[in-house]
């Protein structure tokens, strides 16, 4: 006959195991709810909307495209990573889905992907906060839209809140940079990536955003993993920041990367520099305080403005980017994201 102490010890062990499992569970409030709209795992992406306060002083309908990977639970009860992918200026959200391939099982079998759409209320069309031609944050603040989206998605889908990521192209890459600068958003996002991203000098804008306005307020030891990919032959957002219009000069890419090396506490460390892709790519990676490759930059020779991929993307993308590459940025970005996860204590907001 089993003694009472042994029974109590066994019960205690089971109880502690359950507590441990509960602590490790990172599913959001949306777990177990009916899937919104016509979303199905591996099915067609769906156009969805939310009501937003991002257009200051008004309640505005904002649009986004949502895709569930084939591995997502049909009963919405198993948490999955989430990626926000922001398009470039004058490009609709579906263009970001098409050129990145993030909704294809070839690249992505595990992550929910959301393609938000910028507002079109001022020439030259759909765009995000942070461009010289975009409305200022006193008119439209897309950082608010990003927060609202995360709130809506985590309350309707089973999201692993320790594995939320942000990627962006061009003007959308600039917004990814602004979100990394936000002390509220960088607490919710595990890693960021900017591709051909536009980070503007304060003197090119009517408000400080990327320089004096970038105040991430990182706690001691906190890292914000950032990957930056940029072509040396980019004629839209010049690598050295000297664009066609002198009044619209952007932050030199190396200066932006160095700023994140410093913010992440890796200043003074020697980067690992690799020559890749037949000599057309120079990749620099910074590690410190036990965090490997917390800041990564790819300098791409003979590449223009766009998303690197091995397949043709049609116009205007082919002309702008000067043709396909021998590698896919989507695979690289997803691999970078997979290495980062928030500590669960960071979720205690």
TrEMBL record:
PROSITE patterns the record matches: PROKAR_LIPOPROTEIN (PS51257)
Catalytic activity from the UniProt record: feruloyl-polysaccharide + H2O = ferulate + polysaccharide
EC number(s) reported in the record: 3.1.1.73
Localization (cell): Secreted
BP term (GO), one: xylan catabolic process
InterPro entries in the record: AB_hydrolase_fold (IPR029058), FaeB/C/D (IPR043595)
Keywords on record: Carbohydrate metabolism, Hydrolase, Polysaccharide degradation, Secreted, Signal, Xylan degradation
Signal peptide: 1-23
Gene Ontology MF, one: feruloyl esterase activity
Domain of life of the native organism: Eukaryota
GO cellular component terms, A-Z: extracellular region
Cytoplasm listed as a keyword: no
Name of the molecule in the record: feruloyl esterase
């Amino acid at each position: 006959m089993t003694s009472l102490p042994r029974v109590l010890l066994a019960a205690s062990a089971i109880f502690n195991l359950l507590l441990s499992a509960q602590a490790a569970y990172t599913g959001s409030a949306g777990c177990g709810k009916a899937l919104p709209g016509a979303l199905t795992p591996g099915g067609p992406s769906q156009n969805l909307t939310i009501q937003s306060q991002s257009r200051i002083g008004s309640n505005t309908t904002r649009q986004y495209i949502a895709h569930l990977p084939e591995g997502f639970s049909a009963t919405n009860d198993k948490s999955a990573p989430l990626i926000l992918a922001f398009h470039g200026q004058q490009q609709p959200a579906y263009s970001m889905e098409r050129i990145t391939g993030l909704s294809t099982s070839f690249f992505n079998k595990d992550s929910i992907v959301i393609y938000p759409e910028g507002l079109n209320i001022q020439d030259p069309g759909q765009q995000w906060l942070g461009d010289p031609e975009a409305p200022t944050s006193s008119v439209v603040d897309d950082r608010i839209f990003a927060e609202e989206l995360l709130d809506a998605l985590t309350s309707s889908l089973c999201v692993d809140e320790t594995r939320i990521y942000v990627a962006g192209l061009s003007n959308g890459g600039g917004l990814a940079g602004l979100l990394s600068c936000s002390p509220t958003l960088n607490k919710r996002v595990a890693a960021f990536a900017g591709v051909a991203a536009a980070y503007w000098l304060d003197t090119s804008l009517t408000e400080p955003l990327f320089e004096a306005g970038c105040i991430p307020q990182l706690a001691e030891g906190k890292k914000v993993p950032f990957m930056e990919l940029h072509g040396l032959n980019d004629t839209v957002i010049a690598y050295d920041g000297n664009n066609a219009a002198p009044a619209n000069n952007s932050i030199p890419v190396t200066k932006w990367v160095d700023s994140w090396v410093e913010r992440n506490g890796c200043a003074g460390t020697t980067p690992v520099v690799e020559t890749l892709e037949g000599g057309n790519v120079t990749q620099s990676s910074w590690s410190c305080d036990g965090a490997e490759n917390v800041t990564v930059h790819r300098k791409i020779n003979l590449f223009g403005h766009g998303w690197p991929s091995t397949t043709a993307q049609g116009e205007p993308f082919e002309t702008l980017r000067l043709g396909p590459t021998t590698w896919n940025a989507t695979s690289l970005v997803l691999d970078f994201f997979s290495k980062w996860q928030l500590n669960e204590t960071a979720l205690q907001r």
